Amino acid sequence: MKIQVLGPGCINCTTLETRTRAALKAAAVEATIEKVSDYAEIARLGVMKTPGLVIDGRVVVSGRVPSVDEIRGFLGR
Amino acid sequence: VIHDFATWLVRDVLGLSIEARWGAALHFFVYDTLKIMFLLAAMTLAMGALNSYMPVERVRAVLASRRWFGLDHFVAALFGALTPFCSCSSIPLFIGFVRGGIPLGVTFSFLITSPLVNEAAVAVFAGTFGWKVTGIYTGAGIAVGTLLGFVLGRFRLERLVEPWVFEVPAIASDGSGDRRSFRQRVPSIVGEAWATARKVAPYVVVGIAVGAAMHGFVPTGAFEGALERDNPLAVPMAVAVGVPLYANATGVIPIVEQLVAKGIPIGTALAFMMAVVGLSIPEGVLLRRVLRPRLVAIYFGSVALAIVALGYVFNALLT
Question: Which residue of chain A comes nearest to B184, CA vs CA?
Fold first, then answer.
């Protein structure tokens, strides 16, 4: 599983990354986390409002920080 | 109710006279802090709920459909006022709008209004200046965004946008993918509102504290000399000082309110506020990534000019 955390590095983006790691740990899922801070790349993925969470190329959340439980839901466990 | 509570706390619990300097300052601080925090909470919650159902993707879909019969700029400015976004999102938003088929001028209407009229500033504004001035401020912000977007759209400014922007593939998400029920949305709405309020609150409290000290200790009319309305350069000076100030500038609103109470004309004060929240150096640095330097200069210059003009108009009409 490939997870991308989109955002230029504001507080929201770091919170999202922390929560994603927590969700992965809780769900015992192995995944690579990539931080995407390049604006062109963020726009290319179709996200207009950061932070954004992309799992295997699909945007699951943008413009808000989901809870750990919600991220677990996205992981499919 | 809040006023009575503040009076009770200062006079009965602390035993200070609210007519005395310390009592007056403390009363002002307690009353304003409670009132503004209440408004801030209400405002961020309301906007959070609205935006949960009306994400930027849907705003884009509505604007891109172009069924607004010439009112596109106004509708874009209105959405800009209702959609909070941190300046860190302005680049992906700009690209998303332009590549989503929204004309550059309409995109500017949104981009100009969005920071100018944001929920935190409006809440603090309402708590310090009252609803009438807040309404005027909000209306003026939307008018500035509408007009400037319209004017900027008349010039062929697309050539001043960095070419790579047009190479980003167009994506047509309309934001309808979020099918959570209202109950499922509540935690994230409250969480976002809390985050926003917590970010702004310390600055606002400091601002109120300074305002309270001025309320108690600075004599009325003390500032009439420095920035009085007979000084024709007062408005541009206020804007020049306001532009570089940034971020949780909402904290300066209570201070500005006291400046007005002590003799600075309201138009000069409003122009200062607009310059503080509407334009900032970090925003300029970010916009530079997608706009050529000339267009960044045009953008900042025209917004600053519009704010100066508004300052003069308000000084003429409101005082």
Answer: A70
